[in-house]
C-alpha cells in the first residue's frame, strides 16, 4: 500500500508540515502538472521533487549543474532511506546504477545537463520507468540568468520524448525575463509558474564602502561570534584573507574550487560542524551546503549580480534567527566590472550592463536595501523595512554615492 503524502513527509523527511508553497508545488507534481517553482534559497526546493520521487511509481530524474551539489543531495537522500544514485564522471558504479534504474529500484537519479541531453541517456530512459523530470537551478537555462549553461537548452527534446512525464523546474532566483525564458525553453505553460515570497526578514542588510577591508572584516568578526561566510572575489584573495583574519584567534578557513579536493572537503565539514568558524570562500562555496545557523555573510567585493547577492547573503539565517549580511565595495569593483563587460561578445554586453547598474542602485541607495532587492524580484515591498542599515541609520554622507555614480555613468 503506498503511504500518503503527509505520512511520507513525516516518516521520511521528519517534518510535521510543509513550508510555504511546498504543498502547492508537490500537489501539482503529484497531479502531473508542469511547474516552474521560484523559491528562495533555504525554502526547501529539494523536498518538492524528493517527496514525489518516493511517492510516485518510477524514478525521478534530477538535472543538476554541479557534481558537488549532486553528491551532497545524494548523501542526504540516502541517509533518510531514499534510493538514490548519480551518473557522473566520478561515479564508478554506472553499471549497477543502470541496472537499478531498469529494475525500478531507484527513486532519484541525478545527472548533469550534458549527460541528460545525450542520446545514450535517452536510450537508457527508454528502458526504464520515469516518474518525474526535476530541473534544479533552472535559471541556468537562460542567457538572462546569472549562471548560463548552454547544455540546459538541450534538455527540451528529452522532456518532449516523454510527454506523459511531469516536469518540475526549480530555481531561487529569476527576474521576469529569466522566468519567461525558463518557461519557454522547458515547455512549461505560464499558469505553471509558482512564486514564493523573497523576503528574508531575519537578515539585516548593510552596505559599506571599503576602507581598510581587513580591519572592517576583523571588526565584523569580533561583533559576530557565530558561524559566518566571507565571500572574496578571487581564489588568491580567499587564502590571503583567511590567513590574515585567522591571526585574530578566530577559527578561519578558506574554500575555493582550485583547492586540493580533500582539503576542501575537510574545510567544508569542519565549517558545518562548527559553531563559530568563519569560511573565507569564493562563490563556489554554498551551493547545496545546508548549514542553518550561519549568523553572518560578508561580501569583500561587489557580487556578480543582485541574484548572486541575494543567493549568497541568503545562506545566512536559514534557521529564521537573526543574521546579518554585510557588503563591502569600492569604486574599482565597478571599473573592473566595466572592463569585463567590454571583453564580452556584444550580444551579452547589454544584459551585463543592466546587472551592474542594478548593483549600483543597491549600493548607492540612501533608501531601504530590502525594498530594492524585493523590487528587483518583482515584489511590491513596503518602502522601509526597519532592518537594514539605511532604515536603522539614515545615511549621513553622500561620498560613496558620488563615487558610484561617477563610475556607473562613465
Ligand atoms: P533550497 O534548495 O530551496 O535552497 P533545501 O531543499 O536545501 O532548500 O532545504 C533547505 C532546508 O530546509 C533543509 O535543511 C531542509 O531540510 C529544510 N526543510 C525543507 N522542507 C522543510 C519543511 N517542510 N519543514 C522544515 N524544514 C524543511
Ligand atoms: Mg537546492
Ligand atoms: Zn530597510
From TrEMBL:
Query: What are the residue boundaries of the Helicase C-terminal domain, all occurrences included?
Result: 216-360
Q: What class of enzyme is it?
A: isomerase
Q: Which residues form the Helicase ATP-binding domain?
A: 26-192
- What keywords are annotated for this sequence in UniProt? ATP-binding, DNA damage, DNA recombination, DNA repair, DNA-binding, Helicase, Hydrolase, Isomerase, Metal-binding, Nucleotide-binding, Zinc
> So which cofactors does this thing need?
Mg(2+); Zn(2+)
Q: What is its EC number?
A: 5.6.2.4
**GO CC annotation, single:** replisome
Instruction: Please indicate which superkingdom the organism of origin belongs to.
Output: Bacteria
This enzyme catalyses:
Couples ATP hydrolysis with the unwinding of duplex DNA by translocating in the 3'-5' direction
- Gene Ontology biological-process entries: DNA recombination; DNA repair; DNA replication; SOS response
Q: A single GO molecular function, which one?
A: DNA binding
Q: Which family does it belong to?
A: Belongs to the helicase family. RecQ subfamily.
| The protein's name in its UniProt record | DNA helicase RecQ
Organism expressing this protein natively: Sphingobium scionense
Which part of the entire protein is covered? 1 to 410 of 590
